[in-house]
Amino acid sequence: MKLPGISVLLCSLVVSAAASAAGTILAPGYGELAFDAPAPGSYDLPVIDTAADGKVLDSTGASTRLYDLFQDKVILLSFIYSTCNDVNGCPLATAVFYRLKNRLQQQPEIARQLRLLTLSFNPDHDTPEIMAEYGQGLQSPGLDWRFLSSATQADLDEILDGYQQPVSRISDAQGNFTGTFSHVLRVYLIDKQRQIRNIYSVSFLHPDTLVNDVETLLLEESRSGTRSAQPAAPTQQPATTQAMLGLPAMTMPTDNPLTAEKIALGKKLFFDRRLSLNDTMSCAMCHIPGQGFSNNEMATSVGIEGRTGRRNAPTILNVGYLQRFFHDGREYTLEQQIWGPLLAKNEMGNPSIGFVVEKIKSLPDYRGRFEKAFGKPAGMTAIGMAIASYERTLNCANSPFDRWYYGKQANAMGADAIQGFKLFTGKAGCSACHQIGKEHALFTDQQLHNTGIGYRQSMSRQPLSHQITIAPGIKIAVSSEQITSVSSPRANDLGLYEITLNPDDRWKYKTPTLRNIAVTAPYMHNGQLTTLEQVVRYYNRGGAANPGLSPLLKPLHLSGREIDQLVALLRSLTGGNLWELAETGLSPGEK
Amino acid sequence: MKTKGLLCSLLLMLASYFPVQLQADETCMSPYMAKITGQEDFVYVWTLGMEGVGDAQDKLVTVDVNPASKNYGKVIASLSVGGRNEAHHSGFTDDRQYLWAGGLDTSKIFIFDVHSDPAKPRLHKVISDFVARSGGVVGPHTTYALPGRMLITGLSNSQDHGGRTAMVEYSNDGNYIATHWMPTDQQLRGAVKTGKFADGYGYDVRALPRKNVLISSSFTGWNNYMMDFGKMLTDPEAMKRFGNTVVVWNLHTRQPKKIFDVPGAPLEIRCAWGAKHDYCFTSTALTSKIWLIYEDDKGAWQAREVADIGDPSKIPLPVDISIQSDDGLLWVNTFMDGKTRAFDISDPFHPKQVFEQSIGKQVNMVSSSWDGKRLYYTSSLLANWDKKGKDNEQFLKLYHWDGKQLQQQFAIDFIAEKLGRPHQMRFGAYALYAGSNTATDRLALSDSR
Q1: Which CATH number does the domain housing residue A444 bear?
Q2: What is the ipTM of this complex?
Q3: How do B395-401 and B406-413 pair as beta strands?
Q4: Residue in chain B lying closest to A292 (CA)
Q5: Would you call A486 and B159 a contact, using CB atoms and an 8 Å cutoff?
Q6: Is the peptide bond preceding residue A253 cis, with omega within 30 degrees of 0?
Q7: Most buried pick, A146, A184, B97, B439, via CB within 10 A?
Q8: CB distance from A464 to chain B under 8 Å?
């Protein structure tokens, strides 16, 4: 009695030996695994795809379907052709299945739940009879191993297409078919839900990993029966728009009162990257919730396609209290302000108002939202009103300072910060611009001033070299020439002058709030100062001298200790609800 | 059963005379892939659109590089995909039917059919919801073939455009499978932190399947790779945001195992091909070092700095590296001085520079033919990092390497041709799809190594 399957296997093993003698490296599946196969159940096998169905012939010649053969078993499916001559090709797949079968004789519980399918992609040659011969001697009780072929090329092509198995016939120089095929060896692991869970090729295919993967699927199945329900998502605290400790009641525009619908819609818009021309930039990419609604990672902003912005992204926490917007104060309402970034070529890059409106209208997930919030379709004013509504809810106070100063909690703020407060309102004179009221404080006079920082950037000469930190603790000097070779020309920045054209307004910028200042580095309108210490030292020197320097600035003669105390105060201005706002990104009023 | 006997002797013959090709440095691709071991017919150049040049959008440019062709050294196809997506890297699926090309800015992945007509790739599919499907991964970089699927490294995320990122798996037909976040101090995910850093940054990935090892490197987030290079260099906050780690993973389970300090943005990873060469190289962009990631004699993975590249104090900025198929040479390009350097790596612990030549005012990628005799170079690094003004040369150049010197064969000026900024190159050949088995076009269809 002849045993063709065994003979094929033996043949491949003989070839293996010959190949090894000829210097060919055999696939790992022929030998011992060079590493410990990961323990079953210690990893996930995510779903790759749905396994395809198709018509096949079993080795008796009976027609059946793959899905019928998949019934209630974990499946390993390999594509081969019986005359394959590549030692690391089809013979490998069969040899690995054979080793797997032998190994599973010791693990009948697994063998019982597994079925091996070996399907030929050469129906012309590999008839059911040939496949029966091929499989004869390979099968044994305890593990179901089927040898399959196809009735027609069309039946096969459907399956090959479903499993993305490109196969091409190899021809000789005269164009005659050599009887061999070019293909990529793949074996598929399919779960009981007919989903592909792993794909193996020559380097992967090994009985040890196959067994463990099969066992991992079986463990997953047994665990899923007892899996406990997922913990419920934490419920959101009901939020209100009531004023917080340290902040005044907000004056709402009469034509845009807050509603839950508007806030929710504005929040959706704020975080939507599709609001830029190429779908990459949302408002939140510069005003990042986890970074105090500013950007800690760069001095001045980078917009669409990496275009350079001239200024640092300011925090939008408490922005609803401001009277003017942008560092140069060129806008007067939040509703109008939001169109600046949307249309700036170096921010969100939209070509027109109409483009933005029509794009939002076309997005299915906005369907009905504007109608519900405003009683009319999306339009220029409604978009502004929605985002402004959301931003008016980003109010962040109840800081240690607030609890100490307004809440009268003596221990809410440390001794250094208390000394810092005395300096802030006294010797250092900070509160002249960063104003503090009797009942609340915005820490800004809402005015524009020349502190010299802008003048210095516009008027100072470039140094010959820059000290650059290229890795933690490694600094090197890089010549300005080298930096210039990779720099685009930098646009100048003249502050308020750009709006008024009045020379007296050169390099004037808005006084920023100091609330949450510890989490909104880097500092100044151009992000030139990276720490609060640097900022206090800058003002201690009286700013940078220039003809338009604000008369409020003068050398302060603060000691090192006093500088530390001022910094301690600044660090006490971080709102108590900051992380709640940052982590949830949720706005008061949103349900 | 005469046929079987005949078959068996045929197999023996084949095994003796045509040993299976088990390795190829055909530009350092996935080992799970058909390789071109003879003459390549085409180079596919994933090219960034450049404002003011031609149609100003990203395109896949096909160049005929077969010296027997009448179009040798000429652009024979150009397929524009719409927009400037920050075209960067590309990679074939394991069956080499499709080329996946990522856009670091828009996070789109363009899938080109390269098998229907290798001379004229066709846009087959565009994945435009990568960020949403992956759970916020931005900047698909390396598209690395695994069996039946693609492993895609991210560079950034949609929360803050910083460097925290993940690797994402897709099936070959473009369906999302899973996201594997890089380990951080907050979430080590079972990995051992061997040094000071666990930054969660990503860049390149390579596998050593026989060791069940996957190795990833770390660059920087969208904020920096999209930023004007000069602006970034002078921004101390931005300069703090570079990767300083290499992570060794369990390939089978995709679980991070060990995190190494490799300071200064380790970029490309190239693994040795030799059957017992259990090591990979990477180079650090900012600190200009070659690092060796290797398995020690106790079976533990280690990372060691093994050589300087040029004068690190001048920031030569090593970019692409390419390892020869005999593990004898490592080519290293340095962007700032436009040079290519060859390091003798026969002792991987002591690479020695043995050759250096200027390729242009700037140079980025290098791709080697399997036999190491042909080296292709392109110029563009990133749209906003490329040199400005007259130094902004944009080219594809072919050189022949005879073991001692490089001889330029042709150069294509991508600005004069109105194409843009050429970035990564991948090779194509008719022989991959025609079922041809002639000696000159013999292919290694095994994925083994």
Answers
A1: 1.10.760.10
A2: 0.91
A3: antiparallel
A4: B160
A5: no
A6: no
A7: A184
A8: no
